[in-house]
Amino acid sequence: MKVLFVAVFNPNSTNNCQARGFEQNGWKVIKYDYRLSLQKFGSVPTRDQHLIDLCIKEVPDLVLFSKCNIMDSRVIDECNKVAKSAMWYMDDIHNADLELRTKLTKCDYVFYTCESLAEFFKKYNQNSHFLHQCPDEKLNYLIPNAEYSRDVCFIGHIGEGSHRERLMYKKEVKFDHVQGVFGLDHNKMVNECKINLSFAAADQAGVSVRTYKILASAGFLMTSPWHDMENTFKDGKHLVVFNSPQELKEKIEYYLKNPEERDKIRFAGHKEVQKYMPNRWAKNIIDTIFKREQP
Predict the structure, then answer these.
(1) Helices marked H in 59-97 — which ranges?
(2) What would the pLDDT profile of 163-203 be if each residue is shown by its tens digit?
(3) How many of the other CB atoms lie within 10 Å of CB of 67?
(4) pTM of the full predicted structure?
(5) Strands (E), the chain
(6) Which of 142, 156, 268, 274 is nearest to 207 (CA)?
(7) CA–CA separation, 206 and 117 (whole Å)
(8) pLDDT of 244-275, one tens digit each?
(9) pLDDT score of 158 more than 90
(10) 159 vs 13, higher pLDDT
């Protein structure tokens, strides 16, 4: 079996481990970096035609589009003549513009990461399925005997808009804030921090892959909640939830004083997140599409 994976494959992209997940399931993967190809060909129509021609030449079993903004929906139309198509959408709903919604209607299948948004995606495509984000086992892992260098840290962007809640927490709670850290540097920082923070989207619709990365690195995670979170991770068992700056302050103080409880929770979280590694991620897509298609 063969998949044409239309995505971004820079060194820090999660699309790399997702492609590897297909390979771990015995599939051949043709990687097509749609952003680099746009730089190469200089225009969207030329790049899009090149992708269509590649699909016709390779005749894959599946064409998987990873969001793929700034790409005409005709690409999906043409690829549908050759193979099954699927959209992987991992972003917040506020980024689901008209272009994206049009593509949702054209793909055979859609896989999304916010469990509570099932109704939205079903509106555009009845073959829409919730699928967990996945960490990268080569970039997110436990570093044995790592020494702590920070008490509490948030690694990521803080600002207005969809991240406005993070700005409020930063003003009211004392914690280190670092951004622009990726890959193995991110993993090292998580392992060297006693308490790692994460924030769900302001509308609590879901979480970014950050949550999965921290748990895969065996980091002790404290996070604001998201809808249907309990279907995946349990508060107090795999991670710790806070609902306000005051609650966060109190729980930071408590868990800094109780390292044994931190270790119990972080190792339980590390064990639980193994269910969502790249090979499982790819297998879920394969089984959803191709087992369903069998007579």
Answers:
(1) 74-79
(2) 678 888 999 999 999 999 999 999 999 999 999 999 987 66
(3) 19
(4) 0.91
(5) 2-7, 28-33, 62-66, 84-89, 109-112, 128-130, 150-155, 176-178, 193-198, 221-223, 240-241
(6) 156
(7) 9
(8) 999 999 999 999 999 999 999 999 999 999 99
(9) no
(10) 13
Helices (H), 72-182: 74-79, 98-106, 118-124, 164-172
Contacts of 111 (CB under 8 A, 6+ apart): 86, 87, 88, 89, 128, 129, 130, 131, 284, 285, 288
Answer yes or no: is pLDDT of 282 > 60.
yes
Closest by CA to 196, choosing from 171, 168, 173, 177, is: 177
Residue type, 65: F
**Alpha-carbon torsion, ordered 225, 136, 220, 114, to 10 deg:** 0
Tally Cβ neighbours within 10 Å of residue 230: 11
How many other β-carbons are positioned within 10 Å of the β-carbon of residue 56? 13
